[in-house]
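pinging the channel bc i need a second pair of eyes. not urgent but kinda urgent?? the chain im working w is below, pasted from the shared doc
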Amino acid sequence: MDDVVEVSCPWCGERQELWVDPATTGQMVQDCDVCCRPWQVFVSRDELGQLQVHVERS
């Protein structure tokens, strides 16, 4: 089962759903589905396994 989180594009501000594989942690690059500009996505999990995602301009 994948984790889904809603994020806002740091370029255009459009809200989007981001699917994250449960085994994923660290950094990745994702392009906005609306404006096509790249994001730097930071994925971490707390000690209970709860997903935490932060996006910024890449």
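so The two ends are 28 Å apart (CA to CA). and The chain has one domain: 3-57. — does that match what u expected or am i reading it wrong
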